[in-house]
Amino acid sequence: MRTPQVVQTEGLPDQVTIYEVGPRDGLQNESAIVDVKVKAEFIRRLVDAGLRTVETTSFVHPKWVPQLADATELLEQLDLPDDVRAPVLVPNERGLDRALAAGVREIAIFASATETFAAKNLNSTVDEQFAMFTPTVERALAAGLSVRGYVSMCYGDPWEGDVPIEQVVTVGARLVDLGCHELSLGDTIGVATPGHVTALISAFAKAGVGTDKLAVHFHDTYGQALANTLTALREGVTTVDSSAGGLGGCPYAESATGNLATEDLLWQLNGLGISTGVDLPKLVETSVWMAEQLGKPSPSRVVQALAG
């Protein structure tokens, strides 16, 4: 299997953590319901390929995301190594109750930087969403869980257009103040460009939220995900969200296309000599297998190139 020639570049981290979102953010956007045994095998294969952070599922009401209605059953089928982080997304205290009952050690909450998306996704306003998050985060922290915060629509909103940088920072900083150990900045509709990425990360730094607390989550709608990721790495970010095979998008934003493919990200990082601990050939095999289960080809350029 072809591998990139390694040429290191100054100003980049030696190591990057890949936060794999395929089993949750990827599969929730599939029209077909994937069998729970297939999901469990998918996660096991991802871990076997070397991924050490895999977001497994979401404890949302099955009416809203029927693709993940089997969250409890899925977790019962998993027996992952102790060094693997297996966070789950929870929308509120009811979701937290289910997550705690399932024995999870890490959760994520999902916030909006814009009013329209907050109304459509959370049935709330930007300000009111924190009334929902606060007891959820407080209880999770009291139970010894780690909490990640997602901020969606950081770079643009399909209904509102441009999103002021200070508006994104205000929402993100409030999540950090609540106790979120990590903040993932989501380019939900894939409109970010490198200058915008730099400006947003710099604005967070001025607000006291450093890159040690930031992760980036790019969609590839306009082909900018890898360029934006490289920009974020140059700014000091070392955690990158991606989805095996390029699965996923957002069911509440029709213009959102697939996430940055983990294989495409790995090709870039491997060529830069940046360590991830992930075996690219094994991951490609996994995404080819998953594409067969879904009955459609992977959109990942690297999967297409290496799978022949």
Biggest sheet: strand arrangement = 1-8-7-6-5-4-3-2
Name the overall outline: globular
Largest sheet: 8 strands, parallel
Count the DSSP helices.
12
Gyration radius, rounded: 18 Å
What's the overall average pLDDT, rounded?
A: 94
Query: Helical percent range?
Result: 40-55%
Cα end-to-end separation: 10 Å
Task: List SSEs in N-to-C order.
Answer: EHHEHEHEHHEHEHEHEHHH
Low-confidence stretches: none
Strand content: 5-15%
- What structural class results from the helix and strand content? alpha/beta
Number of strands: 8
Describe the structure.
The protein has helices spanning 22-26, 36-48, 71-77, 93-101, 115-122, 129-142, 165-178, 194-206, 225-234, 262-271, 280-294, 301-306, and strands spanning 17-20, 57-58, 88-89, 106-112, 146-152, 182-187, 214-218, 239-242. The protein is built from twelve helices and eight strands. It has an eight-stranded parallel beta sheet. α2 (36-48) packs across α3 (71-77), α7 packs across α8 and α8 (194-206) packs parallel to α9. The chain has 308 residues and is an alpha/beta fold.
